[in-house]
From TrEMBL:
Top-level taxonomy: Bacteria, Bacillati, Actinomycetota, Actinomycetes, Pseudonocardiales
Domain Tetrapyrrole methylase: 3-208
Organism: Saccharopolyspora shandongensis
Protein name: Precorrin-4/cobalt-precorrin-4 C11-methyltransferase
Any one of the GO BP annotations: cobalamin biosynthetic process
CDD domains found in the cross-reference section: Precorrin-4_C11-MT (cd11641)
Amino acid sequence: MTVRFVGAGPGAADLITVRGRDVIAASPVCLYAGSLVPEELLAHCPADARLVDTAKLTLDEILAEMLAAHEAGFDVARLHSGDPSVFSAAAEQMRRLDAAGIPYEVVPGVPAFAAAAASLKREFTVPGVGQTVVLTRTSARATPMPEREDLATLGRSRATMVLHLAVNRIEQLVEELLPNYGADCPVAVVANASRADEIVLRATLSDIAERVRAAGIVRTAVVVVGQVLTSSEFPDSHLYSAARCRD
């Protein structure tokens, strides 16, 4: 028996990987966060699969489901929105599985920041403009941020910054970013990326908070900050240059 953590993608049901779809189809037990994972993905589950919405379960209750499946010899598909490598709470589950001696695997998925970049039709690493992307979040009701990972510190490089779980405190976010990025720095907010109800806002740090509030966006959004969002004057990359040695 194996637990497989599956990145279910950013929202659109067809942004699941082929491997992830096949894992779902072969698993007698499927644990999923109903508030984030598209219900259409459950159509890939076996007809008699046990489906458990974990949105309101505690960590202990989730692990109890995995343990029961293990004892019964059933494989488990554990669906996480986006990709399990960032902001998924998968690490604490893996730690419990390690302690219980239950094997597990990870199937990567399309992360929210990649879906946001696709919706914006922008590359987040533009030659001569920005070659570093900082993926982070802010502290509110979530787990506190580690020391030295506050926005003022992270923003000193003026690298492209992608913030998850932060749009509901957009005013505080702007206040912390302004000293490093400046009021005219481009900002984009993509809510419900890849879904039919997707909302895309483009603004600057000076007016993004007002735009967000006017649009009524309070959750399930990615905030992107950086010059890569609007830059058009930049050098071609060396990758396809005629001067590059290809021997």
